[in-house]
Amino acid sequence: MSRTKETETIYSRGNENLDLKPLCIRIANRLGIEPLDIRFEDLYDDSRVYIKENYVAINKKYENDYEECAKSIAHEYRHVFQIFYVNLFSNERSIRWKKELQSVINNSNMDSNGSNYIAQEIELDAFAFTKYHLEKYENMKVVNKIGKLDFYIQEYINESKNIL
């Protein structure tokens, strides 16, 4: 994936600067992808990746929250990695991911409690990568708000460390 323009991803946070660019570079390097631009937008979701437009949109409500931005960046970058993975490999995981990527469930088509959204392996993988990477390499504690999700994430991490 190539970047069409270089942007400085620094956002004001009171007297501090919320500098996301180094984080973006570290996560992208870990995944073997190119960093994407970061934009803050009015979203229903917490974040969303726009592959063709080469950016990650983060909900404006998080523009002053480094940890929520970090979780969004790690999660959405992982989806970019998943797309590369299914195009580079032909194994059981890539076949499952490719099938899910062709019919992604998101806020526009998920059931009322979101169970079909979180049941997707690509989502569990993105949540697991986020927790694994941010806790291991960024010194952040990641706790999810979705009931029992942390249990399933930890199980996935234990079984999938070779790809995290």
Quote the distance from N terminus to C terminus: 20 Å
Shape: globular
Strand order of the largest sheet: 3-5-4
- Assign a percent range to the helix content: 40-55%
Could you characterize what this model shows?
The protein is of the alpha+beta class. It has one domain. It contains six helices and five strands, in the order E-E-H-E-E-E-H-H-H-H-H. The strands form two sheets. The protein has a three-stranded mixed β-sheet, covered by helices on one side. Strand 1 (10-13) and strand 2 (16-19) form a beta hairpin. Helix 1 runs parallel beside helix 2 (66-88) and helix 2 (66-88) packs across helix 3. The longest helix has 23 residues, at 66-88. The radius of gyration is 15 Å and the shape is globular. It starts with 9 loop residues before the first strand and ends with a helix. Residues 1-16 have low confidence and may be disordered.
Keywords:
about 160 residues; alpha+beta; three-stranded mixed sheet; two-stranded antiparallel sheet; about 50% helix; disordered N terminus
